[in-house]
Structures are given as structure tokens and as C-alpha cells.
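Table 4 source record.
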Amino acid sequence: MLILVRHARTVLNAEGRLQGRSDPELDEVGERQALSLAERLSTDPVARVITSPLLRARSTAEVIAARHGLVPEVDPAWIEIDYGALEGVAIGDVGADVWRAWREDPDFAPDGGESFTSLDERVHGACERIHAERPDGDVVVVSHVSPIKSAVAWSVGAPTTIAHQMRLGQAAVSRIDTSGERPVLVSFDEWAPE
């Protein structure tokens, strides 16, 4: 099983800002969420924990991994999409034309940022590697909203633009069964502790 975990909350999440490659630490709520996630996943047969290199994901992953006597492996394929000039901008301040371009064109990227096509290439490659390994036990990946939505799209064979039709809560868990020939989406946004 591939268990995808969105990192716990940061101040920028609480403020409704695009974080992208910004690297804030977890806030107090986020620290509690990470502990709740570790408890929630404590009975899963976790064999590996993989994390984005960003601090908010690493901090969440470390708490989960410790419950299983593991050390998280950093994989840059799971880093958040680069919002470029939109880093730190309040979501409500992003123009409607930018949102429309992002929804309609997977090759669109904000100035200095990354496209969903580029994101999909790296995330789908990471998913394929995990699927090909068929590990004994579950693999937990602690990542971010955009890579997780990309992984979910990979699991169901959907185009990247489906990401705009998904809402993924903070510290939410999604599961993909990777034991068979094809991946199977088991759950999405199944649990978001507060």
C-alpha cells in the first residue's frame, strides 16, 4: 500500500498563502496534527517512510517514522510544485486569469514557477518506482497537496487537470494499493486531524 500523507499545518497554511518551495516549520496546530497522524498510522505495517525535502514534510515524516522505528528517506520527486512569483501570495489574491490558465493548460507555469506537466513527470516516475518495487509492507510518502493530487491522478489514469476537482485537507491521508498489476485508489482525503 502506498500511503500518501499531506504535511501538517504551517503558519502559511493558516494564513491561506501559497507555500510552494517556501520552507516554514510546522505551527503548534501542525505539531499536534503530526502526532495525531503518527498515532493514526501506528497500526499500519509501515516498511518505509519517504518525504519531500521541505521542512514541513520532513517534520511530519519524522514523527510518523519514529513510531515505526524508521528514519525517513528524502526524495526530491515529492517536493511541492514551484509557484514562482506566486510564492507566499494569499490564495484569494491570485487573479482569476491565472487560475483559469492553470486549470485549462497543464503546461502553464507562473513566472519562475513549474507547470503541472513537469510536476506529473517527476511524481508519476516516483509512483512507478514504488509500484515496481512491490515492497513488503506499506510505504508512507509525506508530501504536499499538488504532488499528492498528481499521484492520485496517476493511480486512476486521469489527466493532470483533474487536480483542480479535488480538495485535500491538511494532514490528510490517501491510499493507493500498489500490490497488483495496476494501482488502485483505495481512499482520498480520508482523515484530516484538527
